[in-house]
Amino acid sequence: MITIDFSKRKGQGLSDFLYSSIKRQIVSNSIAADERLPSRRALAQNLKVSEITVQNAYARLISEGYIYSEEKRGYFAQGIPSGGTFLADAARKIPQGAEEPQKGKDANWLADFKSNSTNFEKFPFSLWAHLMRQVLNSGDERLLQKIPSGGADELRKAISRHLRRFRMIEASPEQIVIGAGTDFLYTQLVHFFGADKTYAVENPGYRQFASVAKLCGAKCVAASLDKSGIKTSRLKDAQIVHVSPLHHFPTGIVMPYARRFELLEWAASEKKRFIIEDDYDSEFRFNAKPIEPLFSAAAASEKTRGHVIYINTFSKTLAPSIRISYMILPQNLVQEYYKKNGFYSCPVSAFEQYTLARFIDEGHYEKHLTKMKNHYRNLRNDLIRALSASRLSKSCEILEENSGLHFILRIKSTESGKKLQGRLSEKGINVALLSDFYYNKPKDQSSRADFVINYSGIQKNKIAQIVKKMEAALC
């Protein structure tokens, strides 16, 4: 039976402390691979806590890949990667953008499931204008001076404080680099690491990084995925890999902890191997708390520390037109990065950076995230309910809908996905197929009708009309 000393939780919630304690025991092998865990009721009685406390902890462990359940058998610990030499050390220290580019002419779609746009009414225009007026009226001479290459100090400090509080990331302001969108940061990294390196990307995956790497003259290879994410066996020829482990685009896979540690082991096995972690929509995890980033997991061990670069953007949480993204360099790369790339000017205006810094520091960003998370959860639920109540329910399956701003809609049909995609387009529904995101399309994907539903930009009052048009196209 699992024993937990709740006297050490230091104000942490019971469920959170139970989750982190079991997680630590699994990672350190105190709970062996495939070992059966107590039932929820048995563990609750033994620990003298409510069954819902255990249920919430188990649910989070399952969602992050630390345990799995089998019907009528119970809960079991996941296995750890063989040769995981740093796992015990990491266990002691574990702390408690991505859309396919639009093609063709702009169209007036009833539903544009390819777009990552946000609802016009949800942006805090009045508050943003108020904060920007404060910035402009401050008379701060730094507004008219050239800002540091890595970005305004105020914004980097605000991001550092936000990440420490909400994303379990410890990063000094000096480690943070501000960019005008992730494309700019990708370019900076390829210039920094060099075009003579081989870069790996997920297949299927977000094509933008590969496009940037190739434009810079670098070799780029596509590494296939399995149900746990990118296969490290396909990374033998690469020195740098771009991944979205916490919510893969477009499949929606959440990389289990065993594969995450395996990926860190791959990077740590050679000095010049690095992981670019794209955490493009981690803020919108609906049924559980955000998962610990690879950046933080790497920092927990001396062996893996310094091998992960973390990237995130404000385009998903605020608006695509807010072209402010950031990356976090490991401490060991900061000096070398600025030695090579420090001559670049920061491309984001000082006015916007100071405004965003105030937006974060005054607590508005946190409130906005909560508001948008509730909005997107309700929007997703309404869309899924409408699909489930329609004639499509007999022929469709919804996959990976519990986090992020997209899910997969699988249509069972004798017709090809491309043909169905064309019929949807005729009805005013713009949507991508999962197969569109493969570099080398496997044979089993050629005809499959798996649609990537990016729902963030649709209007709630049009859901019934959208689903009716989808019925007309697909049924």
Describe the structure.
Helix 1 packs across helix 3, helix 6 (153-166) packs parallel to helix 12 (350-361) and helix 7 (182-193) packs across helix 8. The strands form four sheets. An eight-stranded mixed sheet has the order 5-12-11-10-9-6-7-8. A hairpin with a 3-residue loop joins strand 2 and strand 3. The chain is an alpha/beta fold. It has helices spanning 14-27, 40-47, 51-63, 87-93, 125-137, 153-166, 182-193, 208-215, 257-268, 294-299, 331-341, 350-361, 364-388, 417-426, 463-474, and strands at 36-37, 67-70, 74-77, 111-112, 176-179, 198-203, 219-226, 229-230, 240-243, 274-278, 308-313, 325-328, 396-399, 406-411, 429-430, 432-433, 449-454. The chain has 15 helices and 17 strands. The N and C termini lie far apart (52 Å). The model is unreliable at 82-106 (pLDDT under 50).
Distance N to C terminus? 52 Å
Residues in β-strands, percent: 5-15%
Q: Provide the structure class.
A: alpha/beta
Regions with pLDDT < 50 over 5+ consecutive residues?
A: 82-106
Number-wise, the strands total 17
Overall mean pLDDT? 88
Total helical segments: 15
Say what oligomer this is. Answer: single chain
Question: How would a textbook summarize the main sheet?
Answer: 8 strands, mixed
Q: How are the strands ordered across the major sheet?
A: 5-12-11-10-9-6-7-8
Shape field:
globular
